[in-house]
Amino acid sequence: MSNTGQGATTARRVRKRPADQAFRGTTTGAGVLILVVLAGVAAFLLVEAWPSFVAPAEEIPGEGGLVLYIWPLVFGTLLSAVLALVIAAPLAVLIALFITHYAPRKLAQFLGYIVDLLAAVPSIIYGLWGFTVLAPATRGPAEWLSENLGFIPLFAGPPSTTGRTMLTAGLVLAVMILPIITAVIREAFLQTPKLHEEASLALGATRLEMIRLAVLPFGSSSIISGSMLGLGRALGETMAVAIVLSASGGVTFNLISSGNPATIAANIALEFPESSGVAIDTLIASGLVLFAITLVVNMIARAVINRRTDFSGAS
Questions:
Q1: For 127-154, what is the mean pLDDT?
Q2: Which pTM was predicted?
Q3: Alpha helices per DSSP H over the chain
Q4: Distance CA 205, CA 120 (A)
Q5: Hey, how many other C-beta atoms are within 10 angstroms of the C-beta on 302?
Q6: Which GO terms of the cellular component aspect does the record hold (predicted)?
Q7: Which CATH class is domain 55-307?
């Protein structure tokens, strides 16, 4: 028998091993289970929210029907999450670079431990901190922003006297998602091939140029995935926003005024205990919209990451 025939026979025997087949079946079942759970959640939300889709507009809480009820919540959810991401993502990249390429070894280990510890802090603790410490501390800066940058819609006055504004909510969310994004990016930067870094330095590049040419391109996919992971956390955050944000409804880009749009998750948490009938169906409908937003965000992130898979640190 030729060597080719013997190799084919050996490959068939390996594929037919019971342990391999059992492991393959287990992993396939786990993947299918995720899809089943996702479809089940979507079906549950759709079925429970359907009565609000067909209910008369006057039975929907507020005025104007289901769309006008959910739209300000969607706006507030996206505004707070995007604000948090804009603040947290650049800081996460800088912190990860400092830990991996600038800090001494012992300091880097200590900072890595602190980052992981911050990710484990319950959200309600962040909410209490934002309510008692951050909200009063933002009143002075909010007044300065209103006086000096009031021509920008984001900082148009008058500022809130309590500090429980969208700006405070965005800062709290930024602090919450910062350790998550930092941890993902840090691990990616640590995986940068040393040969790439050493080759850049050997060709005369400074440390900053080496980071720009070797480290950042290698970790770009992780920067995107970590940012989207943090964005998903910010979109679905409930208690911290409910404690910090003084919501009054409406749609406004003003970050420092007392008129703030609520978020979907916080609104559900605050309104669900006292709701009944169509009001509950309406809240579930808003949850369905949040589910769809999160799904779309993750699909977009996956598409962006897949377009950057041509870069490989090992190639």
A1: 89
A2: 0.85
A3: 3-15, 18-54, 66-97, 105-119, 123-129, 135-137, 139-149, 166-190, 194-202, 207-210, 216-236, 239-244, 264-271, 278-307
A4: 38
A5: 13
A6: plasma membrane
A7: mainly alpha
